Amino acid sequence: MSAAQAVVRDFFEQVQAGDVETALALTAPDGAFQAVPLGVKGTIGGEGREFLDELRRALPDLTLRLTRLFVGRDGTAVAEVFVDGTQADDLFGVVNQEKHFDLKTVWLLPVAGGQIEGIRAYWCQNQLYRRLGVKRLDRVTITA
Amino acid sequence: MSATDVVTSFFEAYRNHDTEQMVDLCDLGADFSYVPFEAWGRQRVVRGDGKVCTIGKTFWTTLIDCFPNLSNDVTWITGDDDGNVAVEVSISGTQAKHFGTIGNQGLHYDLPHVFLFHVDEDDRIDDITAYWDGADWNRQLGRIEVD
């Protein structure tokens, strides 16, 4: 396993363990963060931290399983991550109905000097809405 | 030819709507997974998983038929020494026909995707996995139901 693979694996293990601070210590706080389906752009230390905190708060039993991990010649780690959890609080604007969901996601993480310097995460928000009981895209906060 | 060259050729063929060439760049048994594609029925869920030569070619052909000006713009590509390739690509088109549950309102979409490929030692793609946000796609095409 390369050093870049090791730091990315450690990052997801720390997030799963609920230790967002230790996960963030593996990153560059000023690095670019993007959660593409949410339209969220910012820095890892800002919007990235808020994203991870919300994920952990809303999904106390969160598991993150790496199903593919490789590092491109440009130093970007490519991670497919199977996300699994049960909703216990509002998540990305969706009210809590205590539904269980699983979701395939892909993360692009440029790594340099043993540090994650950027995060771009992709998934299908429609799949997430479907699993959390949302019926209409214009009424995300209304699930009935 | 490098693995990234093979994948670059794949998207060039896609831009040219040359599905035969897209398939020719793949191994006969190449796996195909369009992760966001799910069709929920009463008793089963049909997913976008299968083989390039069956569901893959059918998906591409149908998409091009429904979006006749379908195009793509590769914005980032990387690969390793083991044949793995990742691509960020924006796919766009204007709807001219119903596509699955998405009725035709003549709307245009432009949507970021991530494609993951594996290219074998014979320079053939033997695995394609794609991600996009189906909510954004539906919204751009005027569909708001989550079914």
Radius of gyration of chain A (Å):
15 Å
| Count of separate DSSP helical elements of chain A | 4
Calculate the mean pLDDT score of chain B and round it: 95
Major beta-sheet overview of chain B: 6 strands, mixed
Beta content of chain B comes to 35-45%
| Rg result of chain B | 15 Å
Strand order, biggest sheet of chain B?
2-1-6-5-4-3
- Amount of beta strand of chain A: 35-45%
Number of strands of chain B: 6
Number of strand segments of chain A? 6
The chain-level mean pLDDT of chain A equals 95
Strand order of the largest sheet of chain A: 2-1-6-5-4-3
Helix/strand order of chain A, N-terminal first = HHEEHEEEEH
Low-pLDDT runs of 5+ residues of chain A are none
Identify the notable features of this structure and list them briefly.
heterodimer, A: alpha+beta, 38% strand, globular, B: 147 residues, alpha+beta, six-stranded mixed β-sheet
Walk me through the structure.
The complex is a heterodimer of chains A (144) and B (147). By secondary structure, chain A is of the alpha+beta class. Chain A has helices spanning 3-16, 20-24, 44-58, 125-132, and strands at 27-35, 40-43, 63-71, 76-86, 100-112, 115-122. A six-stranded mixed sheet of chain A has the order 2-1-6-5-4-3. The mean pLDDT of chain A is 95. Chain B has helices at residues 3-15, 19-24, 52-66, 134-140, and strands at residues 26-40, 45-51, 71-79, 84-94, 108-119, 125-132. Chain B is globular and about 45 Å long. The model of chain B has no long low-confidence stretch (mean pLDDT 95). The chains are: A alpha+beta (144), B alpha+beta (147). Chains A and B meet through strand 3, strand 4, strand 5 and helix 4 of A and strand 1, strand 4, strand 5, strand 6 and helix 4 of B.
